[in-house]
Amino acid sequence: MFVATFVHPVCVYLRYPRNGVFHAYSDTLRGSTQTATYEDRVFVYSMVEMSWHVPEHTGLSEECPVGRYGHCAVALPDRTMWTFGGRQYGGVCNNSVHIWNFDKAAWRRIRFDENIVMTPGARFCSSAAHVAGIGRQGSVVLFGGRDGSQNFGDLWIYDIATEDWSDPVTIGVPPSPRHGHTMVAMDGGRIMILGGCAVSPEEETGIPLNISELDDRMSAASNLLEECYELERAEAEVAGIVLESEADYRGWKDLARLGAQAAAAVARREKNTADAEKVSAATAPLTSPHVY
């Protein structure tokens, strides 16, 4: 029994021809508010026995992927599982490809000569699917994802037989760059891409990726707010002085007119201060959850 909390789990389902057992794989970030572990184990769930177990890896340690989350996992027809990318400890993204053999309980890392073969950039929260009609043994199609600074809208094809990547030329209107979407393989060598988040990481959080830029924004907002406070206070003081000095020389109608003008000027200053407070609040990083 596993009691850990898993974030961004990635699962595949593989049917055994003889006994109908399904296996699921999850390699993800787990933990609580106190600790967090980037999980690097394979978890297998038997639909017959209704229980989990962790198979012991029989291969070489250098072939294993490091703990990560937000990666892709695709079940292949030869009873293996193809994995790509993800985000690991320290926020580092990668673009590695590993294949898990369910029968041998072993990992194998696919290595590329990047001087010869173009590969997708490091990313996480992308999506992939096995398409049988592409290549001799089928291919895995990969789309989208993010690397912490931008969303990707590129399409890549991994040939299972040759173990090479290619970036095909596409026609038509492509999906917008996104992450967290779903990809489904369809008949006729087609794929369907659904949903996802197309907002850039900076716009999604409202926090600039560059910390110095954030500091500049917060400093400018603070200075603007302080200036508005000073002007509002000065406007009220001037209005009081003017009304007091004119009280002995003007009639009540003139004084009422001066009072209305002073009140309007103070109200304008108060509105400017309120706007500056909103800017300052929007610029500061969020430190507590909000309920909408």
- Percent of residues in beta strands? 15-25%
Give the class-level CATH name of the largest domain: Mainly Beta
Class from secondary-structure proportions: alpha+beta
Helix content: 25-40%
Beta strand count: 17
What does this structure look like?
The chain is α+β, with helices and mostly antiparallel strands and 292 residues long. The protein has three domains: 1-111, 6 Propeller (Neuraminidase), CATH 2.120.10.80; 119-157 and 175-205, no CATH class; 211-283. Helix content is 25%, strand content 23%. The protein has helices at 201-205, 211-246, 252-283, and strands spanning 6-7, 14-15, 22-23, 29-31, 36-38, 44-46, 51-53, 72-76, 80-84, 97-101, 106-110, 127-131, 139-143, 155-159, 164-166, 182-186, 190-194. A four-stranded antiparallel β-sheet has the order 8-9-10-11, with no helix packed on it. Strands 12-13-14-15 form a four-stranded antiparallel β-sheet, with no helix packed on it. A three-stranded antiparallel β-sheet has the order 1-4-5, with no helix packed on it. Strand 6 and strand 7 form a beta hairpin. The protein is elongated. The relative contact order is 0.08. Residues 1-5, 16-34 and 285-292 have low confidence and may be disordered.
